[in-house]
Design goal:
The structure is a single chain. The chain has 3 domains: 6-178, Formiminotransferase-cyclodeaminase, Chain B, domain 1 (2-Layer Sandwich), CATH 3.30.990.10; 183-268, 2-Layer Sandwich (Alpha-Beta Plaits), CATH 3.30.70.670; 269-306, no CATH class. The chain is built from 9 helices and 11 strands. The protein is α+β, with helices and mostly antiparallel strands.
């Protein structure tokens, strides 16, 4: 992938109304902005929308998506297991191909200004775009959620980077920033005891002394009668998926419960699956060169001169 494309994975606080979710996701589609995937969860009441676009086409698409979400989502009546502070909770920009992190940082700042000006929604920059070190971590930015957002934004430490000093009445605020590739990986447990999922989340996440590049929390899955260890893996090269699963399984076994199944929300880079396959099957020297489709794609691109 040599072209300078950018991925964005906006998370919206709606996972139960398919028609509304579709309208919001499709609002982004336009010249230079393509819809790749929509993953929704009713228990979380949240949807993860994956977009890919050019530096010129993606930002207008994201503004259209935010407009559609603000019109259709009211956090005053929203309930779900996942923490949230905004109708559009977070808008990350991720460099792909020849795109650079600095380019994504600059685009995120311009995008944040545009969202704030067009929608009258406060914007806080996070991760690589953060205006201060304590604003890098999304969990810190979102602490207190929508219900405590007004009092937080009123403090100098958490004043918005762009937009009004108070939350939008129904849409809250949005975090915008550039970051590296992230994998949303969830492990579901055969129990309805939320405390077990919470204990495992504390054990596995980096802030609790577990795996450095893992953020985790325990959430209930009421429709399934189970609980989930919901995780963001912020560097799957250094903390691969299989290592995370092994630790969750070990902690679950220690607490007397079994893993039901796992899920990846949104998209995952190919190398992460290759690493997992190599470790699980104990394959020596396994990688993209051993995968038929990768070889075919490489040969075709070479023949085309790409």
């Amino acid at each position: 992938m040599g072209r300078p494309l950018i991925e964005s994975v906006p998370n919206i606080s709606e996972g139960r109304r398919p028609g509304v979710i579709r309208e919001i996701a499709e609002a982004a589609v336009g010249a230079g902005c393509w819809l790749v995937d929509v993953a929704s969860d009713a228990d979380h009441n949240r949807s993860v929308i994956t977009l890919v676009g050019t530096s010129r086409g993606l930002p207008p698409g994201l503004v259209r998506l935010c407009e559609a979400a603000v019109e259709r989502i009211d956090l005053r009546t929203h309930q779900g297991a996942h923490p949230r502070m905004g109708a559009v909770d977070v808008v990350p920009l991720v460099p792909l191909g020849d795109a650079t992190m600095q380019e994504c940082v600059e685009l995120s700042r311009a995008l944040g200004q545009e969202i704030a000006a067009r929608l009258d929604v406060p914007v806080i920059l996070y991760e690589e775009s953060a205006s201060a070190p304590h604003r890098r971590n999304l969990a810190a930015v979102r602490k207190g959620q929508f219900e405590r957002l007004g009092e937080r934004l009123a403090t100098p430490e958490w004043a918005p980077d762009y937009g009004p000093p108070a939350p939008h009445p129904s849409a809250g605020a949005v975090a915008v920033g550039a970051r590296e590739t992230l994998v949303a990986f969830n492990v579901n447990l055969r129990t309805d005891d939320l405390k077990i999922a919470q204990r495992i989340a504390v054990a596995v996440r980096g802030s609790g002394g577990g795996l450095r590049y893992v953020k985790a929390l325990g959430v209930p899955l009421e429709e399934r009668g189970e609980v989930q260890v919901s995780m963001n893996l912020t560097n799957v090269r250094k903390t691969p998926i299989h290592r995370v699963l092994e630790m969750v399984e070990r902690e679950a076994e220690r607490l007397g419960v079994a893993v039901s199944d796992c899920e990846i929300v949104g998209k995952v880079p190919r190398f992460a699956l290759y690493d997992t396959a190599a470790a699980t099957l104990r394959l020596r020297g396994f990688g993209a060169g051993a995968v038929l489709e990768e070889c075919v794609e490489g040969a075709v691109n070479e023949d085309r001169g790409e």
